[in-house]
Amino acid sequence: MTIHLKRTSDNFVGERHRPAFHFTPPKNWMNDPNGLVHHNGEYHLFYQHNPFGREWGHMHWGHAVSRDLISWKHLPLALCEEEDGDTLMFSGSVVVDHLDSSGLSRSGAPAMVALYTANRGALTKNKIQTLNLAWSLDCGRTFEKNPGNPLIDLGSSKFGDPKVFWHEPSKRWIMVAIEGELQGKALFWGSANLFDWDILGEFGDQLTAPGIWECPDLFPLSVDGGKYHRWVLITSVVHPTPTGGTELSNIAFVGDFDGTSFVRDRSVPVRRIHHGQSYASATFNDVPDGRRLLMAWIPESADLRGQRVWTGAQTMPRELSLKQSYEGLVVSQLPASEIQMLRGTQTETPEGRELEISADFEATGSAPLGLEVLKGKGKGSPVRIGWDPIRAELFIICSEGHRVAAPLAPHNGRISLSILVDRSIIEVFANEGIVSLTAISYPNPDNYQTSWFGHPPLRMVGWPLHTR
Asked: Does 274 lie in the same domain as 143?
């Protein structure tokens, strides 16, 4: 099994912390995943990328492809900032125009069409965001920008992040985009040809999700794997805090979509779909087996930027489902099954810096319980992953001491954890994925042991993940 990156010296602290199976750029800045789509046997990951430095700025679309969601091949930049240096390529999506509704296909090969946000005046602070189009006839290797851009210009400083998909019942393309500088909302548009768009409706929820909305997505999910399905609208939100700061979250609304408008089911509570250090969720179009796969950006701490060549990572692709759980109808997520291709020999005492662990604990007592990973005799603290019965929280305490947490109640008196450890990235999925929590930490790279705390698990198995 090959991996997605080429390492330099393992003695370089930055490379020793570089994740082995989470996607990272070869160098420089990365944030939102864009244009997730499967086409011609390849999963395409486009992403927000600054090719000139490790900080945000000069947004282009980076590009990588994979046939298995594990091993990624880096490709040249897909969309570049305009020659004025002040019109940047912000987030968007990619569709494969199998029906040639756009008239862009050639020689029977369907065009890949990118709908994206162009941010004029991004660096001079006099910004206007517009909807633009580009297309590729060589499986995404090169794109040509539409000479008639922009397609939509509302004169808004906060408009875009379009997610586009084909809606079979109405026989047209649907686009959900966000608008609003201080309080966001989702706008729904329809098109027969990907060029000409008509506004259909809008959805907002200022009381439940106050703040700036970004990166919307809209898709159906079957309930408990059956024939009945509901629609899920997700959006990333920059929330204001009482102290005057901001907090990032990823929100899911469950309801119905009739091809024109989304109506929230108010009997289903609005929930965060993941907690901790992850943001800007997006799902893949055209996954051949029908799964709904999601990736999200993991923002990197600034702590090591001066000691490594990249900034930012992506979550392991996650499979979404809609479950009737002990907490009601919830969007759950678990690592895509492809992770199992990396598994080594199963063990009850997992050790390593790249691990998958499954553990069940009895939710008794008043003391926190869980696992310590990346532990050893070397300097530095381990990463603690556990459940706090007093706070009723799932938590990760990083080796540097900072804590991320999410509300979690026991199920049938138990806490079940599925954990991915990838050097500096920890992803935890609790109670069949109804809660997920992500953290990034930089423990001593010589530490690799695992142990429990609080009280012994009822069950613990793990697999070393072979990434070389």
From this structure: yes
The answer as to whether 415 is a domain residue is: yes
Task: Kindly state the average pLDDT of the residues 248-257.
Answer: 95
Is the pLDDT at 226 greater than 70, yes or no?
Answer: yes
Final residue of a domain: which of 276, 308, 337? 337
* Residues tagged active-site: 32
Q: Could you list the residue range(s) of the whole structural domain that residue 410 is in?
A: 343-464
Structure tokens, 99? 């029906």
What is the domain-level CATH number for residue 323? 2.115.10.20
Q: Is residue 6 part of a domain?
A: no
* Domain-embedded: residue 8: no
pLDDT digits (tens, 9 = 90+) for 170-223: 999 999 999 998 899 999 999 999 999 999 999 999 888 999 999 999 999 999
Edge-to-edge strands of the sheet including 144-145? 87-96, 112-120, 128-136, 144-145
Residue 288 has pLDDT above 80, yes or no: yes
Boundary of a domain, candidates 319, 337, 355: 337
Mean pLDDT of the 136-154 span? 97
The Cα-based distances of 431 to 78, 326, 349, 387 in angstroms read 39, 10, 21, 12
Its pTM stands at 0.94
In a domain, 22, yes or no: yes
Q: Is the dihedral of CA 292, 216, 73, 23 positive or negative?
A: negative
Q: Strand 310-311 to strand 28-39: parallel, antiparallel, or no bridges (unpaired)?
A: parallel
In this structure, the answer to whether residues 222 and 273 fall within a common structural domain is yes
